[in-house]
Amino acid sequence: EVKYEVGKTGASKAEVKSAVKSVGNSRKKVEDKLKNSWAAQR
Predict the structure, then answer these.
(1) Where would you tag: which of 2, 6, 8, 33 has the fewest CB atoms within 10 A of its CB?
(2) What string of DSSP letters covers 1-42?
(3) Residue range(s) defining the domain that contains residue 14
(4) Cα(35)–Cα(15) distance, rounded to whole angstroms?
(5) Phi, psi at residue 11, to the nearest 5°?
(6) Cα–Cα dist 42/29, whole Å
(7) Is the pTM of this model over 0.85?
(8) pLDDT in tens, 9-42
């Protein structure tokens, strides 16, 4: 799952794991969290 999200979102493994800890294991919530975090960094 982590590998899939890393490939899909371009986030690091640590970022994916942090997102899962933050929002739980819902793929949709994790992807939304990563998109928001990634957009904020740009």
Answers:
(1) 8
(2) -HHHHHHHH---HHHHHHHHHHH-S-HHHHHHHHHHHHHHH-
(3) 2-41
(4) 11
(5) -80, 165
(6) 20
(7) no
(8) 888 999 999 999 999 999 999 999 998 886 666 5
